[in-house]
Here is the input.
Amino acid sequence: MNFKSIITAAMALLVATACNGGTKQENVMAENGKTLVVFFSHAGDNYAVGNIEVGNTKIVADYISEITGAEQFEIATHKYDGMAYNPLIKLAQEEANNGELPEYEGDVDLSGYDTVFIGGPVWWGTYPQVMFTFFKNHAGDLKGKTVIPFTTHEGSGLAHCVEDVKEAFPGANVTPGFSIYGHEVRTQKAKVEKWLKGIMKR
Here is the structure.
């Protein structure tokens, strides 16, 4: 079977290590389901990798789509365009402290998907606030679906992202997730492949 035909539906216990994304799995996955990657990624000035044209999380999302055949929806906003790293993290902290929900562009119908990957960088212990806008807009849309969080980071691992996804989507089957250092994503595709093979029935 190929990866595209087998990535979906009910996943059970995964044991993940936060920083390198290694997993052991006991899982049952239904065949012929439909998969989506929902993600936010920040290009421009980033910690440890400098000024980049393609954000770290976007690269991981592209790996997931390449390997699994998943479709994509990018949570996109121009709010942070052109910001240097230090002003950006200060703004991100203010947004988190104030519970702000920045707007994003477009939207997606989640009803046709069985498995949804949700990914982003870790800003102040969890996903960027714009992702929480998406979570609020789709709070009831992932009941009964498999939801797989992932993060890019520079030391935070999964932080509080998995718990926040569980809180946002209480009816979903949320797995422990995967994390990878942002400075590794361009050279360590094999880590993403290993993780995906670990959660897919072979």
